[in-house]
Amino acid sequence: MATQATSSSPSSTSSSSSSLSSCPRWKYHVFLSFCGVDTRMNFTDHLYTALKQKGIITFRDDEKLGRGKYISQELLKAIEESKYAIIVLSTNYASSKWCLIELAKIVKCEKETGVTILPFFYHVDPSDVRNQNGILAEAFAKHEKDTRINTKVVQAWKAALKDVGDISGWHLRDR
């Protein structure tokens, strides 16, 4: 169970207002968005472990979801309660409807609540993310053919992906 990222002392709040731990508004320092089949057992797991070792309260879907809760509502609420969103963009990220729903929510929260987005381009080129080329274009072509998905939703996903692709991040090829 996650602990809340708050400070109990008023003096520590005023003296370190920019620190993560002093902002009572945020339950999590970081929300991790990633495609499990690509990165859960490697990069994301190592990143999560490193953040946790540094005392950074991080929401990762497999550990923080309460049993008996609706996954979608829990995840969307966790995004709203996070100061930072680390998005690990990988080859199958855009193939996952759920990843794209998270992404759209993160971009919305960036505009509405000021969440800071930190993108990692994991075996994908940032320009392909920005322009939705290659495997990303193929993923969106499949979403557009899916009659269960509204065309406006797909367009919103594309716009969110372009926005994130425009953010300077870390390009991880074979590291």
TrEMBL record:
Pfam families: TIR. The keyword NAD applies. Residues 7-22 have a biased composition (Low complexity). One of its GO terms (biological process) is signal transduction. Keywords: NAD. Residues 26-175 form the TIR domain. PROSITE patterns: TIR (PS50104). Residues 1-22 are annotated as: Disordered. Gene3D superfamilies: Toll/interleukin-1 receptor homology (TIR) domain. PANTHER family: TMV RESISTANCE PROTEIN N-LIKE. This is TIR domain-containing protein. The lineage of its organism: Eukaryota, Viridiplantae, Streptophyta, Embryophyta, Tracheophyta.
